[in-house]
Each structure stands twice: as C-alpha cells, then as structure tokens.
Design a protein that fits this description.
145 residues, alpha/beta, five-stranded parallel β-sheet, 5 helices, 37% helix, globular
C-alpha cells in the first residue's frame, strides 16, 4: 500500500488508487480512463459530488482523491477539511479551473496537499499528481517524477 508523505514506495508494484470527484460526469470519466492508463496509478471510480466522500474513500481503498472545488451538493472545501480530519492517510488534491492565489490558499487551508489546474494538459496533471504524492522516480514511467 502507498504510504502518505513517503519519499519512497516500499512496494514499487503498488499503484496509487485515485478517486475522481467532479460534477461533470464525462470529465470525471475521462480522467478515470487517463489514470488507468498510467502504470503507477489506477482509478477507483468517480463521484458526482462530495456528499459521501469520506465513506466512499474508505470503502474503495483510496490513496488519493482529485476534488473539483465547484460542485453542487456538499461544499467541496468543507469535504476536504472533513476528509483530512477523518482520513489523514489520504492525499487530497484540489482539481479546479479556478487556480488563483485565493483559491489555492483556501484549498490548502482546508487540508488539500496541492491544487492542480484543469487547464494543464494530461501529462502535466499526471506529473503534478506524482509530485504531490512524492512517488519515487523508479515508479514513474519516464523516470523524471
């Protein structure tokens, strides 16, 4: 299992299990497919909102979660704060089209380990995920992580 904040993965064959939370189903499904195409990552599914985030992370064996910051239902910032408190072993990554300094500060204050802009190309997003969770270069397909 991948350990939070570890600088080295004790099991290089382990894949980072990521849950995508976004109210745009096609976007979430696209990212789920992209993650499944990475040798060191796998999607554990998608959620259309943050209403049951903690429970879903627990039942799906999630290591990391990508959370959109603007969705209907439960406030994503409140959900990030709650998840950080209830499951401190999960990396929380805000994934938003709003990446201004105030939004980054708000997400980090709630407990997000980082914010990735939706405007990045897919490889840029994957690279940022790897940097945020500090997976070792040996797991990254290019060795550049």
């Amino acid at each position: 299992m991948v350990e939070r904040h570890s600088q080295s993965n004790p099991n290089p064959a382990a894949r980072l299990r990521i849950l995508c939370v976004d109210d745009h189903a096609d976007f979430a499904q696209l990212w789920s497919s992209i993650l499944d195409g990475e040798p060191d990552m796998e999607s554990v599914g998608t959620l259309p909102n943050a209403d049951h985030l903690e429970e879903e992370c627990r039942t799906r064996g999630t290591h990391a979660v990508l959370v959109d910051l603007t969705m209907p239902g439960r406030n994503p910032i409140e959900a990030i704060d709650s998840l950080r408190r209830s499951a401190p072993g999960i990396w929380i990554i805000a994934f938003s089209g709003y990446d201004d300094a105030a939004m980054v500060a708000t997400a980090k204050a709630a407990g997000a380990h980082g914010l990735i802009s939706k405007s990045l190309d897919p490889q840029g997003v994957i690279d940022r995920i790897r940097r945020i969770v500090a997976l070792p270069a040996a797991v990254a397909p290019t060795g550049d992580a």
